[in-house]
Amino acid sequence: MNLALLCLFLSFLQACAGAPPPGAETTPSELTSLEILVQSDSRGEVYPCKCPGNPAGGLSRRSGLHKHLLAQYKNALVLEGGDFSSELPSSEEALLVSQLMVEAMELMPYHAVAIGSRELFLGDSYLEQLANSLPVVSANLMGEKSPIPELLWVHDRVLVTSILDPLIYYEWEGALTAERSHILIEDPSVALGRLQDKTLQAQFTVVLAQMSLDRILELAPSHPEVDVWVQAHEPEKSENPGRVGDQNALVLEPGPRSREIMGVFLTQGAEDDWDVRTRFWDLKRSMHLDQRVESLLETFKQAHPDIDLEP
């Protein structure tokens, strides 16, 4: 064997010796930082709201800003907290606009999407569309036709799930007559407890919580395995995340009507402490439009000229 072949053979043996055997499990490395981009509560706001003093929002701006931010924060966890479906008084129009929202959201790079009460209000067929189109997740919403994943793993070390407060749905006047034959909303605490073995395997567990802030503060101490709570039902805006429970879990409030994108940046410090920074990007100041979404909206307007998409 000549010298070149001998060196090649020895290099091959060294590589094989250092590689894990086929099928062996490998443990993902611990994260030293985590970036989160999150918003919630857009309520079918397709075009920017011209509300006095707060003209913002809109699907095209949202998608364009997402693309712009991900060029800078390439590993960011992109989350939607739910209640993105339309609140138009006509259920037929609301369903059409909400389906348009879903088509546009398919063009955006979401890692996880929560289901809120507004999504439930539109019935089983719409939920089936969501389950087939977006990375929806719910720990306590049980379905049979299109089962919704209880949790999603992102970046190997981050687990994301969502929970919905049953009272938000059942206090709706149409809850008893809505088409929901295969839907069961489990008690949030029971659902999170059932997932505890899996959440304990994660370095970070993030819960998109479709419930009031008071309900989160009541629930969180019993679930120390949760590291980040996102208050996604009619959220207020808070630039200083709250802390809850003995584990000092973060409580994020991304603000109402998806008119801003909230960024949360966690960096590991000394003694396993995590430094936390937040930032909000206001859509009314964004010049980043997504032409794919613009085209989608124009096609919809031509097909449904009687539906007013302007908020």
From TrEMBL:
Alphabetized InterPro entries for the sequence: Metallo-depent_PP-like (IPR029052)
SUPFAM superfamilies: Metallo-dependent phosphatases
Keyword terms: Signal
Record's signal peptide: 1-17
Record protein name field: Uncharacterized protein
The species this protein was found in: Eiseniibacteriota bacterium
